[in-house]
Design a protein that fits this description.
Layout (H helix, E strand, L loop, with lengths): L1 E3 L2 H13 L4 E6 L5 H13 L2 E6 L19 H10 L4 E3 L3 H4 L18 H4 L3 H16 L3 E5 L3 H13 L5 E5 L19 H7 L1 H14 L5 H12 L4 E10 L14 E9 L2 E8 L1
Parallel strand pairs: 1-4, 2-3, 2-5, 3-4, 5-6
Antiparallel strand pairs: 7-8, 8-9
Bound molecules: pantoate.
């Protein structure tokens, strides 16, 4: 497996691969790979001939007081995991390889990004769409695989791909959870063992909301209130609970109809967790 840091070398690797008539799937990540990411590699391998995993902690998607500096970085360990899972290349550029010092161009999706996480992290999705567009321009993948834990991110990226006629198919892959139900996330590294067990209340609260919906309740306020009550305790502060359209992630404000999901973000102590469940 190749580890490539230069965008030019990455372009050359993909050009060579495509010249052999092979398809390419990209798995974009910020590293600190866990079983959730590795399941994306499995998915990528099932749909394309060659899998490229990008590992890049993208500064433009972090706010000024967020965890960019402390975000876990462990390239060697990540690369061995990718190799063991059968990826053909890891693309791990430096920040200076991706952003010129005077870079001044961004890709902005303005509708979906304004809701949910976009409200509490104002420039987050602008950073995501910008770096994903850059990665697509470098890797030119036929497919790109993203995890459904970040369902709003998938909706934003699908909208960008549609609106800008980008030649890539966006593929999503189910959330992977630990034995207590906590959705796997690189940020779980901030939690100690006891906190990890406690953080599973986020998933339990979503299950409560789904149970009420399965019983036939279509009243959004009742479902949201149940989820909020179930998750809130001394350690957990709700950032949002919303019922959203499953495809667009736009909030549904009247009675539930069609395919929807409950999306949640909470502060669990100092750690920001997000999760969702399909209704
Ligand atoms: O989901 C992530 O890890 C990041 O937002 C992504 C898509 C790799 C862009 O930096």
């Amino acid at each position: 497996m190749k580890i490539i840091s230069s965008p030019e070398k990455m372009k050359a690797f993909v050009a060579e691969t495509k010249a052999q008539g092979k398809t390419v799937a990209l798995v974009p990540t910020m590293g600190a790979l866990h079983e959730g990411h590795l399941s994306l590699i499995d998915k990528a391998k099932s749909i394309a001939d060659v899998v490229v995993v990008s590992v890049f902690v993208n500064p433009t998607q972090f706010g000024p007081n967020e965890d960019f500096d402390k975000y876990p970085r462990q390239l060697e360990e990540d690369a061995s995991k990718c190799e063991a899972r059968g990826a053909e290349a890891v693309f791990a550029p430096a920040v200076s390889d991706i952003y010129a010092p005077d870079a001044s161009t961004y890709v902005v999706e303005e509708q979906i990004s304004a809701n949910l996480c976009g409200k509490s992290r104002p420039k987050h999705f602008r950073g995501v769409t910008t770096v994903v567009a850059i990665l697509f321009n470098i890797v030119k993948p036929d497919f790109a695989v993203f995890g459904e834990k970040d369902a709003q991110q998938i909706s934003v990226i699908k909208r960008m791909v549609r609106d800008l006629f980008m030649d890539v198919e966006i593929v999503s892959s189910p959330i992977v959870r630990d034995e207590n139900g906590l959705a796997l996330s690189s940020r779980n590294k901030y939690l100690d063992t006891v906190e990890r067990v406690g953080a599973a209340r986020v998933h339990r609260a979503l299950l409560e909301g789904k149970r009420l919906s399965d019983e036939g309740c279509t009243n959004i306020d009742r479902i949201k209130a149940l989820v909020i009550n179930s998750v809130t305790n001394a350690k957990t502060r709700v950032i949002y609970v919303e019922i959203v359209d499953a495809e667009t992630s736009l909030p549904v404000n009247e009675a539930i109809k069609g395919k929807t999901r409950i999306s949640i973000a909470v502060w669990f102590g100092q750690t920001r967790l997000i999760d969702n469940i399909l209704l």
